[in-house]
Structures are given as C-alpha cells and as structure tokens.
UniProtKB/TrEMBL annotation:
<feature type="region of interest" description="Disordered">
    <location>
        <begin position="124"/>
        <end position="148"/>
    </location>
</feature>
<protein>
    <recommendedName>
        <fullName>Cellulase (Glycosyl hydrolase family 5)</fullName>
    </recommendedName>
</protein>
<dbReference type="InterPro" id="IPR017853">
    <property type="entry name" value="GH"/>
</dbReference>
C-alpha cells in the first residue's frame, strides 16, 4: 500500500477517529487478548444463534466455560440484522444475556455487524440443516447479495446498527465493534465499498465508547482500495491471516507501521501451516491479539477445509479449525496446554482481581 494511495483515501468523520495515542492507551489497559470466532456448536449460522426459538444460553454458558478454562478472554461474535428486524427488543435482550454469560467467564467479546461470506440470501425462521463434510454450509451473509448493494435497504440497516451501538455503546463488557467481516469477499470486491462506507458513517454518528474497526483480509492489488479505506478509518488495526508463521510475522510487522494496536481476528487453519503451535507464541511476543476461527466442533462444519469437502461427512485427516470436540475434550491437548501456558499471566492477574490483590 503506497503512501499516496493511503493519503487519497476518504476518511469518515476524522475528528471522531481515535488518535493513535488514545488507541494505544486503550490497548495497554487490556490483557493480552486470546480467544476465538465463536458460534455455539448447535447453531449453523448467526440467525440460528440469535433467533428466539434457537438461542441457547445453557450451551453458550457451557462452551464459554471451556474457553475460560484454557485462558481465553475474548470472543469474536457475529450478529445478524435479520434477527434484529424480526424481534428488535428480544434480540437486544439476548445480546445482553450473552454479555452477562461472557462476563461470568471473564470474557470480553467483540461484535461483528455485516459479513460478505458464504450464502447470499439469508432468511429468518428455521435454518437449513448442515450439509455433510462441507465447511460453513449454512452460514449467511449479512445483509446478503444483492441486498448489500440495494440502497433501499440502507435505512433499515442504519436503524439496526445505530440502535445496537446506542444501546451497548457504553457497555464496559464489550471490547470493540467490528463493522464488516471481509468486505469484498464472495467476488464482490469494491461493490462492498458503499455499504462499508455507510457502516463507518453510522458508527461514527452513534459514537460508541469502544473502538471501531473493519479487518483487512485480502492482500492482492484488487484489495488496495478497500484495505486503505479500512486502515484509514479504523481506530485499531484488525486483520485475518491464515499463512504460516514467517509470512504472518511479516504481515504483523507491516501493519505495525501504522502506529496503532494490531489485533488478529482470524487465524489457525492447521493444514495451511497456521497453527497454535507455530503462531501463538509469535502473536504473544508481538503483543498482537490472537483470535482463531472456531471454538467447538458443531453444525458449522468448520473442522472441514474451505475447499476440500468430504461428501460422506467422515472425519478429516486433520481438523481445519476448532479447539474442542463436542464433549468439551480438546482436539489436541498439546494445543490447549499451550494456550493455558501462554495466557498464564492473564489468569494470575484475573485471580488477583477476584481476591482483591490485583493492581
């Protein structure tokens, strides 16, 4: 990304973007952030997670307890605008309950609004059954395609985002707001820029206490316009990287040049040589938040690789994502032991706070 391209990027409400000093001071107040992109094992997508009929607080409590047990202290959690529009007050009550459960387990989540990944036309009501051996077979985009580019949808999306941000924008249980997951994915490229721009405008107008961001995820020339816009408008730098440790470290070093906190909000795909064993210590040494995709094996099928379906649904030779099996046992104990070891400092601080001896 050249400086000249970056300089020409439109900055939304520059007076509201956190100065780098404020962003870095905020980050220093956080423990080293370790967690997962989370959806309950019994939900195939964001709608099944959040709709009244299928929201499962007991499952969430159980699974976040497993996460707490290995030292995780954050989760990246996808919302969905259709769940809100079907039942706005109920949706907000469920978000509040989720936050209560997360706080019980000393987990401070971040929430994601829009998403360009996987199935194009989300619908409320009963969600599809998972397709055997297919990664994220039932995950839904938000608002979808072509919905993302239809400006007639913008008023309802604005109302949704602003209501959530105004309801929870002063809530100390929330870490940050991730406005748009992988904008431009599913072949959309810059067609997602108008909604991405609106998302930043709406968020700045709502003006939450927590930082806002949209993570960069694609690194070729087609992504330059989106990446520079996201970096110019985010309070903290977030990114996705499924590369091996050497390339991942180079990515971190590049992103640190922006002078803001750096948080990895997706990594860890074992067959791609992105693993806890070879990457987590690097993220800790660099003081970069480490949020891997997937916590518990379940209906999303993300133990299967993106592009390697297994038609009969049999066990893959090596899991792509996920930390725990459905019964709460680790997929690989050496991984969960490493996470516990590297987060030991965090856990000692938390124990000290609970007994009144913390700083």
């Amino acid at each position: 990304m050249s400086a000249s391209v970056f300089a020409q990027t439109k900055v939304i409400a520059p007076e509201k973007i956190w100065p780098a000093a404020k962003a870095n001071a905020w980050y220093k107040q956080q423990p080293w952030l370790v967690g997962a992109d989370y959806i309950p094992a019994n939900a195939i997508n964001q709608l099944e997670m959040w709709q009244a009929d299928t929201f499962d607080s007991a499952c969430i409590n159980k699974e976040l307890g497993w996460a707490e047990g290995i030292g995780m202290n954050t989760m990246r959690v996808f919302l969905h605008s259709l769940a809100y529009q079907a039942d706005a007050q109920g949706f907000k009550k469920r978000v509040d309950l989720f936050l209560t459960i997360a706080e019980r387990h000393r987990i401070k989540p971040m929430f994601v609004f829009f998403d360009d990944c996987w199935n194009k036309v989300p619908q409320t009501g009963k969600q599809p059954e998972r397709k055997p051996g297919i990664h994220n077979s039932g995950w839904m985009q938000d608002p979808g395609d072509p919905a993302h580019k239809e400006t007639a949808n913008y008023p309802r999306l604005e109302a949704y985002m602003k209501d959530i941000l105004k309801t929870f924008g002063h809530d100390k249980r929330i870490l940050l707001w991730d406005l748009y997951n992988e904008p431009g994915n599913s072949g959309k490229v810059v067609a997602s820029l108008p909604l991405l721009t609106k998302a930043f405008i709406w968020a700045r107008e709502a003006n939450p206490d927590q930082p806002i961001t949209a993570g960069i995820w694609k690194w070729d020339e087609k992504a330059i316009e989106l990446n520079t816009f996201q970096l110019a408008n985010s309070d903290v730098v977030t990114y996705h990287c499924y590369d091996g440790p050497e390339q991942h470290l180079r990515t971190i070093q590049m992103l640190k040049m922006h002078g803001r906190p750096v948080l990895c909000t997706e990594y860890m795909a074992r067959p791609r040589n992105s693993t806890f064993i070879n990457s987590l210590a690097i993220l800790k040494k660099e003081n970069v938040a480490a949020i891997n995709w997937g916590l518990v094996d379940g209906k999303t099928n993300t133990k299967y690789a993106w592009d390697t379906p297994i038609a009969d649904g049999s066990e893959p030779k090596e899991w792509f994502h996920e930390v725990f099996r459905a019964d709460g046992t680790p997929y690989r104990k050496e991984e969960t032991e490493l996470i516990k070891k590297l987060t030991e400092d965090n856990q000692q601080v938390a124990r000290g706070q609970n007994t009144g001896t913390g700083n």
